[in-house]
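Reviewer 2 asked us to include a model.

Predict the structure of this chain.
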Amino acid sequence: MAQVAWRPMSENVSAEARQIPMMYRQLEYLAVEANLPAIVRDGLRAPGRATNIEATDPRATDALPWVGELRCDPINGLRLVDYVPLFLNGRNTVMYTNLMSGRPLCVVRVRAGAVNTPGTILSDGPIARDTTRFFDPSEATSQVDLNAIRATSWGVFEGNPGARVRTGNDERIKSAMQATLLVPDFVPADLIEGIIVPSETSAARVRAQLRAQRIITQVSVSVDANRFFTMARVA
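Predicted model (structure tokens):
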């Protein structure tokens, strides 16, 4: 069983004043469009505790935060499905694999305050891989390669600028881009900061769904097609 020590911060220090490392200022959850109203209203729940699923189509499940077989050993006494998985870089191979399988993904941006949740841990790569290491988030800054985590591609290219050819994958970068903050059980709705969608059409649908369910929120909805690998998307 993997164990990671967690030491609570002083109760006398406000959440705003706590020194949260910059690496946690970009936390991203991969969700399908149909689930966004429930997420904005109720927050994020670990898949093993509850779900945000509101449709019977299996593609309506949120993105699985792993590719391949799921590790069986608990981490800090919890199964992987008992954590809410927040990527430090959502534009990774997990997103790509889920998009290719037909899931209409969006990115839910989560405030850095989620890192203060007791029992939260950070992986340095794919959470289902046996060789992945887990850290106390406050000690992880010296243990992970943030440049690799924030990379925009895991491809290996050769040739001159303008005529480069992809020749393979950089497995180290590919793994690091899947670094995940694992939050036990639940991320409350007030930590949801924004939603990124792949098209204006998708943004209009999300806003209409929020209005239809009378959900009043300050959560922003923005469009960034490049975050989704500029893949052809069904409007």
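The helical segments are 36-42, 93-100, 146-149, 171-176, 200-212. The chain has a mean pLDDT of 82. We have added this to the supplementary material.
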